[in-house]
Amino acid sequence: MRNEKDLLQLMNAHFEPLKLEIKRKQNVSVEFKKEELIQALSFLKSHSYRHLSTISCVDWPEEGEFELVYHLFSYDDLINISLKTRIKRDPGIFQTAKEIWPVAEFYERDIHDFFGVKFKGNDNLEELILENWQEIPPMRKDFDTRKFVNDKYEWRDYNGQKHTD
């Protein structure tokens, strides 16, 4: 069973991570160049990190980037590891991880739905929740929630009266 420091040494020996960090006990974060991330995911799966908990996305519009975060867990080491990379917001394309973990297809569909990121190699990016959505993806920070709500819904106060601005 590896500890957090052993895991970071293993990653550093096989890759050139941008940043290695022990967040707290049993929780590690590693940042990669986008060109190395898929290879690092495959490597970790072969080193007991067989559980892909989820994939999340963070929007950094000021920097013109999305940050993709792959959350893995090892039942042998009892360590959570987050592998991060950044991609350009425009065009917002990254390689799929579904060949490594088939469940990645679902998480990638979710990220595509809510952020608009496309995953090369995932031919099933149809909507999960936002059927017939016509706006920019709603989890992007430049999505104007107030404008959307004002355009789509009529406000009423709690006693059922229409609200006027």
UniProtKB/TrEMBL annotation:
Q: Which family does it belong to?
A: Belongs to the complex I 30 kDa subunit family.
Where does the record place the NADH:ubiquinone oxidoreductase 30kDa subunit domain?
Answer: 31-148
Q: Which GO terms describe its molecular function?
A: NADH dehydrogenase (ubiquinone) activity
**Protein's name in the database:** NADH-quinone oxidoreductase subunit C
Q: Where is the signal peptide?
A: none
Q: Source organism's superkingdom?
A: Bacteria
Q: Known PANTHER family for this protein? A: NADH DEHYDROGENASE [UBIQUINONE] IRON-SULFUR PROTEIN 3, MITOCHONDRIAL, NADH DEHYDROGENASE UBIQUINONE IRON-SULFUR PROTEIN 3
What the entry lists under SUPFAM superfamilies is as follows: Nqo5-like
InterPro entries hit by this protein: NADH_quin_OxRdtase_su_C/D-like (IPR037232), NADH_UbQ_OxRdtase_30kDa_su (IPR001268)
Task: Please name the source species.
Answer: Halanaerobium kushneri
